[in-house]
Amino acid sequence: MLIDDAEGPRTYGAYLLQDFRDVNRDGNEHNPEVLFLVEHTGASYEFDESGEGAMDGPESGLKENRANFMMCPYYENQGLVNGNKPLTRTIEYGRGWRRFMPTPWLLNVAFAEKLHDSRYDASFQKVWYATVEVEGDNGQTLHVGDTAFYMPGYEMTAAEKAAFVQRTGARVYLPSDYEPDADGGTKKRQMFPANLKLAAPSRNGVNDASNRPFLVAKLSETYLIAAEAALMSGGDPTPYINALRRRAAYRNPNDYRGFEDGQDGAANLAKMGYDYQAALAAMTVARDRIDLDFILDEKSRELCGEQLRFFDLARTGKLVERVQLNNPEQPAKANVRDFHRLRPIPQSQIDLMTNEDKANYQNPGYNQ
Predict the structure, then answer these.
(1) What domain range is 164 assigned to?
(2) pTM of the model
């Protein structure tokens, strides 16, 4: 009913936005695609308890949402190949806590299509601009605002990379540079594409936690739930999947002004090789391509970084299979078990019980 209304009279006021980039944009949380969110009083630090400039967080009784730091790389401590450091910590780029890094599978397999599918560019930061003036890797001055670090999202040839460096003076990070030992093991997972969905460039201070409302449920997720329900009940999931994929084919030219130092967004998109009609055709899928794994992959593209993945994998019985196939961490691949679909009950809570058999109340597998 909700989807039918969103595609028809819009009685409920909910519908998919035209541009995927706008759905999670800072300051646009109260948009028609968001069905439920947790508010955060962002008008004044006096009331929002995020703690302006605070460092202690919950230890000081504050209720900080530090999600904006967790997926941010350590850009401020990185140098060009010549050793010069062109970046300082900024409000826009955030604090590089690097607690969560996207897997190679997400970046390179789920998002193998990066031209026709706008969601990669809309979800991840791949360019950092200099905040201090230094000598670039081409021997020329790298001015404030010039490209300092660039992540093309694919493995450039040596000649292509050298030409880019010579032209810009910037440092290029290829996908093979993100993972451990790519640089000899000295800087493991320091730089990688930053997930932008929880970024909070509107906060007041460079070290402040986020004061954005937290998005809980979106209409796009409802489409994916409907697609899975249709698949499992013998129906047709194609309309729900293609509605999202056709939306993802759209790129707003205004988002590409300034690309390659040009201000004509449409011309810059054409320079990239993007054509909207070609993107629509490429993103439209036939029924015979859609199975449960395809829907899970589509959820990765639509909802990555939104803290829903574990629940989808546990619910569909795909947790062990997907971790073993797609997680690069050997401890996880070797040790994940089916009982991990349920989280352990904290021991501190079990210790408060008075039952003699209280150990039996732990979820299966964790007392072995």
Answers:
(1) 67-195
(2) 0.91
